[in-house]
């Protein structure tokens, strides 16, 4: 599963938005390979090299670059990639084979997002303006990121991030608790950290001070 970042000029402002996202949700880039889509960034080779260095300083690993003009790559830069889907196709979680996120201005979505279909492996659903409700399951290798709370009516086997817009009151609830990672307001725990607590059972996750608490869902 790769995350696609699509910088837009001025790149300094785009990096500031990326920093704000990482501050709200430090787990967002944990273990995530990144594809850099630069067709709209208006960069020359030196500018691209500087951008890759800035991302590296933020522990963002760029595995490949899309949208580069002829002769732009080389000299130690990540390799070119081809055949991906356009960034604008983020909104189709049923079909997108790889997650794509553009850190740029976009129209404000509805306060709550309801997904009638399950979230499949390799898909990322990002909704920072409210809650997300998944009527099915979240598969292993999938990721759901909500600015508010996250409700999963099936099994939660992927990565669940709630309160990503800076909401410590957010919660995660599911009918079957088997996550790879959970996070609320920037605090996160992996499956290894969680141990057997509520494994395979209905669960709710919330913050108590600076600690993530997992309890039975009654």
Tell me what the structure shows.
It is a single chain. The chain has 218 residues and is of the alpha/beta class. The chain folds into 2 domains: 3-88, 2-Layer Sandwich (Alpha-Beta Plaits); 108-216, 3 Solenoid (Pectate Lyase C-like). The protein is built from 3 helices and 14 strands. The strands form 3 sheets. It has a 6-stranded mixed β-sheet with strand order 4-6-8-10-13-14, with no helix packed on it. Strands 5-7-9-11-12 form a 5-stranded mixed β-sheet. It starts with a strand and ends with a strand. Residues 83-110 have low confidence and may be disordered.
| Oligomer type | single chain
Helicity range = 10-25%
For the biggest β-sheet, the strand order reads: 4-6-8-10-13-14
- Arithmetic mean pLDDT: 79
Instruction: Please report the total strand number as a whole number.
Output: 14
Tell me the β content. 25-35%
- Put simply, the count of helices is 3
How do the SSEs run, as a string of H and E?
EHEHEEEEEEEEEEHEE
| Span between termini | 34 Å
* CATH class category of the largest domain: Mainly Beta
Question: Major sheet: size, sense and barrel closure?
Answer: 6 strands, mixed
Tell me the radius of gyration.
18 Å
Second-tier CATH architecture of the largest domain: 3 Solenoid
Structural class: alpha/beta
Rough outline: elongated
Regions with little confidence, pLDDT below 50 for 5+ residues? 83-110
Layout of secondary structure:
Elements: E1 3-5, H1 11-24, E2 34-37, H2 45-57, E3 62-66, E4 113-115, E5 124-127, E6 132-134, E7 143-146, E8 150-156, E9 159-162, E10 172-177, E11 181-184, E12 187-190, H3 191-194, E13 203-208, E14 211-216
Parallel strand pairs: 1-2, 2-3, 4-6, 5-7, 6-8, 7-9, 8-10, 9-11
Antiparallel strand pairs: 10-13, 11-12, 13-14
Protein name: Probable septum site-determining protein MinC
Keywords: Cell cycle, Cell division, Septation
GO biological process, one term: cell morphogenesis
